[in-house]
UniProtKB/TrEMBL annotation:
4Fe-4S among keywords: no
Protein name, per record: Methylated-DNA--protein-cysteine methyltransferase
Domain Methylated-DNA-[protein]-cysteine S-methyltransferase DNA binding residue range list: 105-182
Gene3D superfamilies: Methylated DNA-protein cysteine methyltransferase domain (3.30.160.70), Winged helix-like DNA-binding domain superfamily/Winged helix DNA-binding domain (1.10.10.10)
Protein family: Belongs to the MGMT family.
Enzyme Commission number(s): 2.1.1.63
Pfam family, one: Methyltransf_1N
Stored NCBIfam families: ogt
PROSITE patterns for this protein: MGMT
Needed cofactors: Zn(2+)
Biological source species: Rhynochetos jubatus
Location of the Methylguanine DNA methyltransferase ribonuclease-like domain: 16-90
Gene transcribed to yield this protein: Mgmt
An example Gene Ontology biological process: DNA repair
A molecular-function term among this protein's GO annotations: metal ion binding
Length: 190
């Protein structure tokens, strides 16, 4: 029997950096799946980003595992070609948090599955969807520990009041992602 701690240390983690409209996204993963997407902190909103939408690997391209390539393709579609997103599978995940049975994992999977591009839900609505309507605070905790932001769209979770709430990449990033999706969804509707 392989001890999970030992199993994890056998993971050969690779890293890559993507240049995106919101700055450099650092992605990491192994042959099994994606471990993390690290967001940059932005202090000003990118301007004219819609017209200069770009999302390409700028570091680590030669070392990318298949899940990292899938992640880069997915992020490229997200930022540059949202109309084609449906044809891009979500890369497999290989982060311990997403492997253990927990409310956090349940919330993150529910969010990924049920809250689509251009939509938003409140913390309470997400708690309801995940099966525990009284766990809105726990949903907030799950959002804070999300290792794969953007793909697992914690930016789509907002306060019941309509305020955006906090975000790991900062509130400007959250606002940019929400408005990017809203704008793209409106374009797709025509």
């Amino acid at each position: 029997q392989v001890n999970s701690k030992r199993g994890d240390s056998q993971c050969k983690e690779k890293h890559a950096v993507l240049l995106s409209p919101v700055g450099k996204l650092r992605i990491s993963g192994c042959e099994t799946g994606l471990h993390e997407i690290k967001l940059p902190k932005i202090s000003t909103l990118p301007s004219g980003a819609e017209s200069s939408a770009v999302c390409e690997v700028c570091e680590g391209a030669e070392e990318m595992t298949e899940p990292l390539k899938q992640c880069a393709a997915w992020l490229h579609a997200y930022f540059c070609e949202p109309a084609r997103m449906a044809s891009f599978p979500v890369p497999p995940f290989h982060h311990p948090l997403l492997q253990q049975d927990s409310f956090t994992r349940q919330v993150l999977w529910t969010l990924l599955r049920d809250v689509k591009f251009g939509e938003a839900v409140s913390y309470k609505q997400l708690a309801d969807l995940a099966g525990n309507g009284r766990a809105a605070r726990a949903v907030g905790g799950a959002m804070r520990s999300n290792p794969i932001p953007i793909i697992i769209p914690c930016h789509r979770v907002i306060c019941s009041s309509g305020k955006t709430g906090n975000y790991g990449g900062g509130n400007l990033m959250k606002e940019w992602l929400l408005s990017h999706e809203k704008l793209q969804k409106e374009k797709l509707a025509y």
